[in-house]
Design a protein that fits this description.
- With 332 residues, the protein is mainly alpha-helical.
- It has 2 domains: 211 residues, Rossmann fold (3-Layer(aba) Sandwich), CATH 3.40.50; 90 residues, Tyrosyl-Transfer RNA Synthetase, CATH 1.10.240.10.
- The chain contains 14 helices and 5 strands.
- The strands form 2 sheets. It has a 3-stranded parallel β-sheet. Strands 4-5 form a two-stranded parallel ribbon.
- α1 links the parallel β1 and β2.
- The structure holds tryptophanyl-5'AMP.
- The site of tryptophanyl-5'AMP has 25 residues, from β1, α1 and α8.
Length: 332
């Protein structure tokens, strides 16, 4: 039986963090045995916000190394770099004819980026969701493991697929955002203001490359207060975030104990943060060390990229042949 196709991507815009891991990469690793998986580094997408390419190569290699260190096996999943698959650019161009300026301008991430970089509102930024749809549809993928922040982009990919199928005939499945834990994940930042991010808010984000001391320092600085005064009271957002982060890496008994301490007003956030810092260190250190070794092995990474590109181009080429045929772009 043919396996269902899965695809996801990560932008090469900086160091990967706990949000990338728990929102996306953890699912990649779980899916690689049972699905036909394609995972890639979105280096073209990175250019929409990071036009300076001095760090791009390092960043691409690091994303690959960190994915492999987290358990992704290039022998099982196809691991490649977006710019090695020109078929994606062709599909992006064709899908652009089915994407309307108004809907692109209304996209939340576009509006956010306009606020963040008013000096560089480029067309790539506006058509970001179209390129993302091309990434997915080029392998006719159905399940797309992503964090909560990508939900709207997935909805747009479905719309573009639907429009194409309606106009030119059925070529694409309508892709869905996927997480094993059902609802999509958003890993909050340590300061309780927003989410962990590759390029913003770095002291409130835990990176997979952070050393032990830095992890401890960031966790200990996380916002807390002097504790509840009423038993069983609601948690303020920043405290709920701490619990949420702790649940990702600590044992259930540990979290339950702090929950109980919270509910009977005996919680000491200093102790909770110390425990969480140690559990974070225990989680991150082995990934960091493995990633550093893989990152240093450029020959191996080159092989991974080459093998991945070949497989991805084969699948993408087959889709493009179908697309051209359905669109009537065949003249002899
Ligand atoms: P990117 O590079 O911002 O993030 C990569 C993945 O990590 C998830 N993520 C998070 N999940 C939970 N909590 C967080 N704080 C958090 N921060 C990031 C993201 O949801 C994502 O799954 N547009 C995409 C890259 C992309 C893509 C694609 C993804 C390009 N083409 C096609 C899927 C399919 C992005 O910027 O991800």
């Amino acid at each position: 039986m043919q396996k269902e196709v899965v695809l996801s991507g990560i932008r090469s815009t900086g160091f990967l963090h706990l949000g990338n891991y728990f929102g996306a990469m953890r699912n990649y690793v779980r899916m690689q045995d049972d699905f036909d998986c394609y995972f890639f580094v979105a280096d073209w997408h990175a250019l929409t916000t990071h036009p300076d390419t001095k760090e791009l190569r390092n960043s691409v290699l690091r994303v690959l190394a960190e994915n492999i260190a987290c358990g992704l096996d290039p022998e099982k999943a196809c691991l490649y770099v977006q710019s090695h698959v020109p078929e994606i650019a062709e599909l992006y161009m064709l899908l652009n004819m089915l994407a309307y300026k108004g809907e692109l301008e209304k996209t939340t991430t576009f509006k956010d980026k306009v606020r963040l970089q008013p000096q560089n509102v480029n067309a790539g930024l506006l058509t970001y969701p179209v390129l993302m749809a091309a990434d997915i549809l080029v392998h006719r993928a159905f399940k797309v493991p992503v964090g909560k922040d990508q939900e709207q982009h997935l909805e747009m990919a479905r719309n573009f697929a639907q429009r194409f199928n309606h106009r030119y005939g059925d070529v694409f499945p309508e892709p869905v955002a996927f997480n094993f834990g059902e609802s999509l994940v958003k890993v909050p930042s340590l300061d309780g203001a927003g989410k962990m991010s590759k390029s913003e808010n770095q002291m409130a984000t835990l990176y997979l490359a952070d050393d032990d001391e830095l992890i401890r320092k960031k966790v200990m600085k996380a916002k807390s207060d002097s504790g509840p005064t009423e038993p069983n009271s609601d948690k303020p957002d920043y405290i709920e975030n701490l619990f949420q982060l702790m649940r990702l890496v600590s044992k259930k008994e540990t979290v339950d104990q702090f929950e109980a301490d919270y509910n009977n007003c005996t919680i000491r956030y200093g102790d909770m943060k110390k425990q969480m810092a140690e559990d974070m260190v225990a989680f991150i250190a082995p990934i960091r060390e493995k990633a550093a070794a893989i990152y240093a092995d450029e020959k191996y990474l080159a092989e991974v990229m080459q093998t991945g590109a070949e497989k991805a181009r084969k699948s993408a080429g087959a889709t493009l042949a179908l697309v051209r045929e359905h669109m009537g772009l065949k003249y002899f």
